[in-house]
Task: structure prediction
Amino acid sequence: MKKTLIAYFSASGETAKLAKTFAAVTGGTLYEIKPKIAYTIVDLNWNDKKSRSSLEMNDKNARPMILEPLENMAQYDTIFLGFPIWWYEAPRIIQTFLESYDLSGKTVVPFATSGGSEIGNIGSILQKSCKAKVLPGKRMNSFASVNEVSSWLNSLKL
Result:
């Protein structure tokens, strides 16, 4: 049987809600991608071009450090990867996560939360950061029901 990981980054708690639903549906292991330096409200002010999140997203090479790396990545076959959409992309810490492990032979399925942005081509952007098979992914409401998540996951035929 395939082992499933639900890895997620949640700056405000919205993506965490959805990740917990994914864990309930899949029975997978839940892992929070925590930055070594936590984001403050000021850091997340996308209206401020000098805020930490703005500076990171404007620097394609930015790779915020992760507080506690995941142990035993080798045991997982499928990784559901959750994050909020920032500037039409995944936050740079998601690339830090993907680039920190050998994901050869694994499948990565992005899922994202957003106030209005679509997931766009995030899957192809993330594909450049790892050797896993990265699916296009889906943007969902943080309060998506078990039925909504189950329906989408069943459509993937993993």
Notes: The CA atoms of residues 108 and 134 lie 5 Å apart. The longest strand covers residues 78-84. DSSP finds five helices and six strands in the chain. Strands lie at 4-8, 29-32, 78-84, 107-113, 133-134, 138-139.
